[in-house]
Amino acid sequence: MKKLxxxxxxxxxxxxxxxxxxxxxxxxxxxxxxxxxxxAEETSQSLAVEEGQKIFRVGCASCHGTGGxxxxxxxxxxxxxxxxxxxxxxxxxxxLQQQGVQAPKKPNIYTQKEIDQLAAYVASLGxxxxxxxxxxxxxxGGDVARGGDLFRTNCAQCHNFTGKGxxxxxxxxxxxxxxxxxxxxxxxxxxxxxxxxxxxxxxxTTTDKQDIIAYLDEVGGDEAESPGGFSLxxxxxxxxxxxxxxxxxxxxxxxxxxxxxxxxxxxxS
Length: 269
Prior knowledge:
Low-confidence stretches: none
CATH superfamily of the domain at 134-223: Cytochrome c-like domain
CATH topology of the domain at 134-223: Cytochrome Bc1 Complex, Chain D, domain 2
Strand order of the largest sheet: 1-2
Shape: elongated
CATH class of the domain at 134-223: Mainly Alpha
Order of helices and strands: HHHHHHHHHEEHHH
Oligomer: single chain
Radius of gyration: 32 Å
Helix content: 55-70%
Distance between the termini: 144 Å
Structural class: mainly alpha
C-alpha cells in the first residue's frame, strides 16, 4: 500500500493517467466511429440537402413557406417524405402552374439530380415515405391475377377496371394510369396525391403494390386488345349496359314503329 501511495504521488503519475485515458478514448472512437464510406455518404447527403434547400427556396417556398411549413397557397411539406416530392415533381404536377381544383400532369422542369436534391431536403424536414427501390415496383416481380383482384377492390371505383381514369366531383378526376412509370404508380399508392387516398404498407404491402403494378402493366398499352371488339373505354358493365340500353332499346322502338306503320297501311288497304 505504501508503494502504491508513493507511485500516486510521483510527478509523472498524472501524465501517465492522462495518456492511458487518451489511448482508451482513441481506441473507442476507432471502434465505433463511422467508416470512411459512411462518412462520405453522410457528407453527400448533407450536400444534397443543402442544394435541395436552394432549389426549394426558388421554386417552392412561395407557396409552401420558406421552411416547408405551408401557407394559404400550399400545404405543409413536413413529413410528406421523399417519395411525394419525387412523384409530384417528376410528373410535372409541381411546381403548380396555376391554382385549380387539381394539379395536371405536365413536363417537369428539373433534372433527376435536382429532384433527388429537393426530395432530400423535404425528407430532412420530417420522416415520411422514401423513394422506393426498383425491386419494389418492377412489374416482372408481381402476380398479375392477384393484382387484378386488388385493383378492382381498391382502385377501380375511381380509375375504372383497366385504369383508364374517370370523373370525380367538383371538376376533379382520376387520371388515366396507362403508360405511367411503375415507380410513380408505387409512389402514388404510398403517398396519396391530391384526391387519392394513401395506401401505406399496413393497408397494401409492398407485395400488394407490386402485384397491382404488374396487373396495370399487363392490361395497359396499345398492345392490349379487347377480346370483345371495342373496349368502350374499359368502363365495364356500366358503359356496356348503357350501350345496350340506348342502341338496343332504340332498335326495338324503330322496329315497333315500322310494324305499327305496316299494320295501319294494311288495314287501310
